[in-house]
Amino acid sequence: MKISARNVLKGKVVSVEKGATTAHVKIEVAPGQVVTAAITNDSVDALKLGVGSDAYAVVKASDVMVAVD
Amino acid sequence: MKISARNVLKGKVVSVEKGATTAHVKIEVAPGQVVTAAITNDSVDALKLGVGSDAYAVVKASDVMVAVD
Amino acid sequence: MKISARNVLKGKVVSVEKGATTAHVKIEVAPGQVVTAAITNDSVDALKLGVGSDAYAVVKASDVMVAVD
Amino acid sequence: MKISARNVLKGKVVSVEKGATTAHVKIEVAPGQVVTAAITNDSVDALKLGVGSDAYAVVKASDVMVAVD
Amino acid sequence: MKISARNVLKGKVVSVEKGATTAHVKIEVAPGQVVTAAITNDSVDALKLGVGSDAYAVVKASDVMVAVD
Amino acid sequence: MKISARNVLKGKVVSVEKGATTAHVKIEVAPGQVVTAAITNDSVDALKLGVGSDAYAVVKASDVMVAVD
């Protein structure tokens, strides 16, 4: 499947924390650069995500903001 | 200002394309890893964004999805 | 690629309208039920979307609201 | 109330799962086509959502992505 | 229609700027406090929005971030 | 840090409710006008948010919808 989301960052899962319904998955996309995703517990199971899994962090361009110092 | 968004990736602006109301700003956050943001033209002006600007790509954790091959 | 987004609705593209930077793509996901996506013009090109294309409308669960009469 | 969100899909609630703060509500919007919404527990109560309720899944066009095989 | 979105701020439209596909609508929700919405041109027409219209700015709780100085 | 998000509403935190992974923070941005944010528990800690804290509710323009009666 090819998706319209412009941001697809390859990395490795470094932590998975399940909550009651919402899980937090951290993916290291570059040395020292970790992206946090809040997804459903169901998705963690469906994608069989665990520490060490190869995974992509995917973000729609309209969900990215820009900041400056 | 310190923000709750869990993902704040430091980089450099590599392109700015203004549309009628919506602009696309590309930020290189790691060598070869470019993030695209769709923001308002007004924000481009307010933040004085241009090619070469230091900038952060900011994403709320609930807007990050995870994918696997 | 398998994605964490819980909502992947199969359908057919019924219209594509490009703007200056943002395009509107309409996908019929059930008879008479059309979903509108606002994505980048770049994505329309990258996915080669046109009227009649098979396509999926993909939505993260945290972006779905519920309403009642 | 009439809303700007372009996607308002009519259906019936088929499951409600409350978490600690976030609930998952599944709405069948066409035979066999179920949409999952992650909303606050408060909203489930305010809208009195339960299995069998008539309800709409509402999505802003800018939150819809497109994918192809 | 009653919606799950937790944030429904009543106000008056103070400007409408249509782009090629995306419009910017500004709503004053309290004296001096203006909220900007980026919605489709189609929605502006469907809701007959113009300067002076009574309108609500509606935001899902999961789309609100918090910042501190 | 200066952010592209067009909506930055100043206020005071009136409640913080932590869940398993997701917290709900309510900010009064005008007399009687309260905005609810669903953010990670981690962010509540990182920003040291508590009742009475000065804080901003921050929303990207593309996440704001408009409604009329």
From TrEMBL, chains A, B, C, D, E, F:
Annotated membrane-spanning segments are none
**GO BP annotation list:** molybdate ion transport
Native source organism of the sequence? Methylobacterium hispanicum
Give a yes or no for keyword Transmembrane helix in this entry.
no
Provide the gene name from the record: mopII
Q: Which UniProt keywords apply?
A: Molybdenum
| Mitochondrion among keywords | no
What does UniProt list as this organism's lineage? Bacteria, Pseudomonadati, Pseudomonadota, Alphaproteobacteria, Hyphomicrobiales
Protein name (record): Molybdenum-pterin-binding protein 2
User: By its UniProt entry, which InterPro entries does this protein fall under?
Assistant: Mo/tungstate-bd_C_term_dom, Mop_domain, Transp-assoc_OB_typ1
User: Which segments constitute the Mop domain?
Assistant: 2-68
